[in-house]
Design goal:
61% strand; 8% helix; mainly beta; Porin; rod-shaped; 235 residues
Length: 235
């Protein structure tokens, strides 16, 4: 009997040691779940942009009243260079040129004989501009889209030709004739620009830009709109 009791106590001791080495949990087993991957970055905090674009220009007035481009519309192209020192703000320079089919007005007036003649001819000339620019953009998080607004100031050249109307003496009647004798050379004027648009990135380094700007040149008779569309390269 004594041996049986000692044997039972030994088995109990071994069993208690075995159970002491295990852990039990109540409730459901806890699992660690990984979060979603971060959004791709289409626009960098610091990047250098080179834009190449085509442009369409249209005057704010009818061509008869416009005093600089002297045409209803013109087509051309341009380039802009920008450096974004912060994701949202960039400074740069842009240059563009368009082929303007300018109208040339010629008049002939003979006051003594009551004659007044007015005619128009057309001449194609390049009109262009160089501006310094400031751009504010907002890359929409987790998308390829970035709306932006911009402003600039600089110089425009190639337009502003005016007719040279002179008095001509007619024998026996004095200076009673006014006629156009050529036109002045083009003038360089100051220009201001404001506008806005949208960029869509195909990759972090290539995007499609579309925008519109309104341009101010020496008074309201010379204002014009500009539509641009092209490719932007980001480095």
């Amino acid at each position: 009997m004594k041996k049986l009791i000692l044997s039972l106590l030994g088995v109990a001791a071994i069993s208690s040691i075995g159970f002491a080495g295990t852990e039990t949990y109540s409730g459901k087993e806890m699992k660690q779940v990984a979060g979603p991957p971060p959004c791709p970055e289409w626009y960098a905090d610091r990047e250098f942009n080179v834009g190449l674009w085509g442009t369409y220009v249209f005057t704010g007035n009818e061509w008869q009243n416009d005093r600089y481009i002297e045409a209803d519309h013109a087509w051309g192209g341009g380039i802009d260079l920008k450096y974004f020192f912060w994701r949202y703000i960039g400074v740069g320079i842009e240059g563009w040129a368009v082929d303007a089919r300018q109208a040339r007005e010629d008049i002939f007036a003979d006051f003594s004989d009551g004659i007044f003649q007015r005619s128009f001819r057309h001449e194609s000339n390049a009109v262009g501009s160089v501006l310094g620019t400031l751009t504010l953009r907002y890359p929409i998080p987790c998308t390829r889209f970035s709306p932006y607004i911009f402003g600039g100031a600089g110089a425009i050249f190639g337009g502003g030709q005016r007719p040279r109307n002179v008095f001509v003496a007619e024998p026996g009647e004095g200076f009673d004739i006014v006629e156009t004798q050529g036109h002045t050379d083009s003038e360089t004027k100051a220009i201001g620009q404001v506008g806005g648009g949208l960029e869509i990135r195909f990759t972090p380094h290539i995007g499609w830009i579309n925008d519109f700007s309104w341009n101010f040149v020496d008074g309201p008779n010379n204002n014009f709109g500009m539509v641009r569309s092209g490719i932007n390269f980001a480095f």
